[in-house]
Amino acid sequence: MTAKPTTIVVGGGLGGLWATLRLVEAGFGVQLFSLFEVKRSHSACAQGGINAVLDTKGQRDSVWQHIVDTIKGGAYLADQPPIKTMCEEAPGLIQTFERMGVTFSRTPEGLLDLRLFGGVRNKRTVFAGSSTGQQLLYGVDEQVRRYEEAGLVHKREWWEMLSLVLDSEGRCRGVTALDLRGGGVQAFPAEAVVLATGGIGLIYGRSTNSSNSTGAAAARAYQQGAAFMNGEFIQYHPTAMIGDDKKRLMSEASRGEGARIWTPRQPGDARPPRSIPEDERFYFLEEWYPAYGNTVPRDVASRAIWKAVKHLGLGVRGEDRVYLDLTHLPREFVRLRLGSILEIYESFTGRDPCEEPMEIFPAPHYSMGGLWIDWEKDEVSGGMRHGSPRNHQTSIPGLFACGECDGGYHGANRLGANSLLSASFSGRVAGEAAAAYLQGLGRTARPDASAHLDGEQRRQEEINRRILAGDGGENPFALHRELGELMTDKVGVERDNRELDQAIAGLADLKERFGRVSLDEKGAWTNASLPYARQVYDMMVLAEVIAVSARQRDECRGSHHKPAFEMEIPEGKFPGDPEWEDYLARWKENNERWLRTTVARHTPAGPAIEYTPVDTSVLSPETPRDYR
Q: How far apart are CA 522 and CA 142, in angstroms?
């Protein structure tokens, strides 16, 4: 007989905290690793809300409509049974958050308030002012702290995962991690590991993500054999505040509350925005998509802004920016509902959004792709079967993934306010699945993994020594800047195969130059440049997955847009019109070829790409996305 299996969760955001809760509730102790205090995790930056069908507005919303909106919003590219279960369980999840003490915004009658978000017709988004992610994160962390106090959770904050530890059978048996305060490398055994390490926005340099959203942990798992799915689908958020250091999110909640996007009709018009008459303003989203207006999905809105600025030359003052206008709304209302984002904008620009329209432009925001995850279907409900050890398990046995670092729920485009939902739901499911996996192992003796742990620790220490000893003159900070510029210029909102080829060649050059990297500080103790340099290389690896996957997918779907392969909906034509029916036939023919999940596997020569079928058993892809 052996001791009860140990578990590790990497990442202290909503996904990681929910996974930790479920593992502890199943009787397993957890070591929780985080790059910093868990309350600083990027989940806290989510502003607008979390989706769940509560219908407190009496709009006759339904769970089925939430399922349909999510599937179609993702251009049918996500497996549908997990989406079905997620949407069905969303209302109960909100009730759980309430019982944890999360203070959601309410109506004067005391009902949970709802706001409108992109890609839907009904108000479905539950919110806590404009700091919803922070409130949810704090609520779950308080529950984890109870178990921490009881000795069942050991938080290892300020530790960075460097690699997985795999045994001779390819099973995950732990991780190696770097002490970011001391600089030492240590191996930690575990029979199951859950990765909940968030997004990859720093691959693009300036993004809406925090400075720690590098994707390095996912990249390291990928390089050790975990498959990566749908890497080409990178969401640009349409309304980001422009900054020299980074892009700052101006929440979609602003548009849900009535903000309007516009630009002067006259190119180069330099007049103050409030002096421009209404008839000289171009509310292009409202004109091009009258049914949804300013609340079209993010991929649609970002491309529309790109078209207005890049193709029509209508950027504000001739620059890459348009207006996000709240000035027509009552000040008290705006301050109450959107106070946090107004404070951010005022802090960095010195301008009051209640008096002057905000200037915004699309910015890299979210990765729909991520580590490939398995799931088991419930043949009775048509959803995902609860308690299956297959759920959220990666292609490496014993390794699970949840939150933004998995690619399971959003297909080609994520709907706003589904991120907090999927992070919480997937963390809960991953924790339950990891517990089921561990219960399946039982208390039977397992092969000793100490040699693998020691060997992997030595390997990571050698990598660190090699980087510290490097003297080739390449600066990791400069390499990262070039990486961000390359990805932004060549793998952005619109894509072209010639430019993608240039991106792939550029990435190969950057990886080659990284071999000559040198750091100014040569000591290992508290050397922040060392983990940063390692992250830069891992970002290059995932950037290659994104670029190669994008190069091979010759179509337009969701956030992946190649104008050369675009099939535009016939203007002014609708179902029943011959032109529409012809378009529908071509759209279905394209799905025969491209309605497939992209799966990348690491090889020494770069990503090897294959395609797998998408489960469309819940909603057959019979009607294209149409937000006109």
A: 40
